[in-house]
Amino acid sequence: HSSLSTDVLRDNLLENYIISVDVGTTSIRCHVYDKEAQIRGSCVTKVNLLYPEPGMVELDPEELWMGFVKVVKGAVQDSGFQMCQMEALGISTQRGTFTTWDRKTGVPFHNFISWQDLRAADLVRSWNNSCTMKALHGVAKALHFLSRNKRFLAASLIVFSTQHVTLRLAWALQNWKRVEAVAQGNCCFGTIDTWLLYKLTKGLVHATDYSNASATGIFDSYQMCWSELCCFLLSLPLSILPKARDPSPPPPPQMADQQAAMFGECCFDVGDVKITMGTGTFMNINTGSQPHTSVSGLYPVVGWKIGPEVVYLAEGNAADTGTAIKWAQKLGESDRWHIPVMALCRDSGGGTFPRINGRRAPLNDPKACASFMGLKPSTTKSHLVRAILESIAFRNKQLYETMLRETHIPITKIRADGGVGTNDFVMQLTADLFGRKVSRPTRHEMSCLGAAFVAGLGVGYWRSREELKKLQSTDCVFLPRNGYGTADGKMTDQYGQVIQSWERALQRSMNWYSKA
Fold first, then answer.
1. What gap in Å lies between CA 74 and CA 62, rounded to an integer?
2. Nucleotide-binding: present as a keyword of the record (predicted)?
């Protein structure tokens, strides 16, 4: 027995592993992966969101860093292995959450401003309605007419959003005096990945990867560099921006969470679609080597740049998927949303739920409100829960139709993950409304796995993407039922009237928070 235990211990010490951290909106989690992409150790800690004023969402930078260190040490300890056996570290982070700090001391000037933060909503509306933007659109349209260059078409359609860093950073530079260090060349800007890399390298590296950079709204995905035009318009100094780089070691490779999830789902081919239903819903389609130019608000992001290869994605999203579920849980329905909803009630009782906190593509209204419409004296909590779950699937359908209409790319496969993706009712209704099969992976934390895959490929732990595809596992495949939808996104009568009511409710809840 002693000899056997010694042999096992020796074999374990000879093996290497990949460690990967995902910094999400509500938690930081770390996993240790083996060659079969199985989790051998884990640790998770909560992200404390701060709400200093209504509409403002912040995170403490030092607390986030301590949480990162905690989960890395905890996951290695949980695995029973040694830190020296960790061959590479991958990092996946939420996007668009940023801070600024002193270049010399590394001390943050302010808390992280979250991607959910709405403090710049009035600034967004003012800029989008400004003469400057109208002039920019006009010039870009003329240039597109003359050259037929899609880059100018993109410029003619560009609008600012609270979800992008652009105007939240402009707000910070205007409102916080401590950021006057900009003028002295002593200010660093960075999203969470940049901050973690800065801390890991003890201030030696101020950099980001292309996937995170492309989601800020300051990055030109066509030229693969920071947009000098955007910086000029908003008075954002180029000197504070990090260097964009490939996600390859060393130092530790970073990826934005949605792009990492796409990689974790092995959506490597043009037409592959990934839906992540977590705190928000993010739907991405692989558009290949060219960024997609959208007229409805789909956003072109860099999926990944590994060596000379650049893969682009088109993305649509909804900000409050998991948030709506948590709100329902506060009604005393904490377990109810996991129960097959057909057993709760046959329908939503005529009620509909247009969601929370603004609308993204294709409606694009940050001033939209949450609301239940069609309530009756007979409406129960079960009806409310069903209306919330239906709204998630309806929003998925809306994004899917927008992608079909805009990209004209044949869909090759659809994979769905995230915490809300564990709900069978949402998954089945999504497949029904799409008129296509939707696969759910066995593993739910795909951002962490994707970052691990990129880190592992970078050091030769895994040799090819074909090898990664063989490691992919599927928990359940949801096949569309007759009478709901068709593969081209068109509706049949089964759910048509309910969706029409939901769409009317969307229109009525728009522009709710505008000031008189």
1. 18
2. yes
Residue from 27, 23, 47, 33 nearest 75 by CA: 33
**CA neighbor of 283 nearest in space, from 456, 128, 149, 400:** 400
Distance of CA 58 to CAs 96, 112, 177, Å? 12, 5, 18
Beta-strand pair 112-113/187-191: unpaired
The token duo for 171 is 């707000």
Q: Per residue in 11-56, pLDDT tens?
A: 556 799 999 999 998 899 999 999 999 999 999 999 999 999 998 9
Sheet containing strand 27-33, edge to edge, reads 39-46, 27-33, 17-23, 86-93, 254-256
Mean residue pLDDT of the chain comes to 86
Residue among 275, 200, 206 nearest 239 (CA): 206
373-377-382-383 Cα dihedral, nearest 10 degrees: -30
C-alpha span between 313 and 256 (Å, rounded): 12
**Are 316 and 361 spatial neighbours (Cβ–Cβ below 8 Å)?**
yes
Q: Position of tokens 């998954």?
A: 427
N- to C-terminal Cα distance for the chain?
Answer: 79
Q: How far is CA 114 from CA 151, 216, 372, 377, 458, in A?
A: 29, 12, 27, 39, 30
Residues 157 and 134: their CA atoms lie apart, in Å, by 10
Query: Could you say which DSSP state residue 86 is in?
Result: E
For 458-501, the pLDDT digits (tens) are: 999 999 999 999 999 999 999 998 766 556 555 555 677 888 88
Burial class (CB in 10 A: 0-12, 13-18, 19+), 78: middle
* pLDDT beyond 50 at 409: yes
Distance CA 513, CA 117 (A): 15
Please name every residue paired with 50 in a beta bridge, in sequence order, or none if there are none: 58
The predicted pLDDT at position 254 comes to 92
Nearest to 395 by CA among 325, 319, 336: 319
pTM for the predicted model, two decimal places: 0.86
pLDDT over 90 percentage in the chain: 57
From residue 396, how far is each of 286, 360, 422, 499 by CA, in Å? 17, 12, 15, 12
What pLDDT sits at residue 342?
46
Query: Which residues, at least 6 apart from 211, have a Cβ–Cβ distance to it below 8 Å?
Result: 247, 255, 256, 259, 260, 301, 302, 303, 304, 305
User: Which segments of 459-508 does DSSP mark as H helices, in order?
Assistant: 465-470, 493-508
* CA atoms within 13 A of residue 218's CA, in its CB half-sphere: 31
Sequence-distant (≥ 6) Cβ neighbours of residue 473 within 8 angstroms: 441, 442, 443
Q: 373 has which bridge partners?
A: 352
> What is the residue whose two structure tokens read 């495949």?
477
Give Cα separations from 457 to 130, 200, 208 (angstroms).
Answer: 46, 21, 19
Q: Is the pLDDT of residue 343 over 50?
A: no
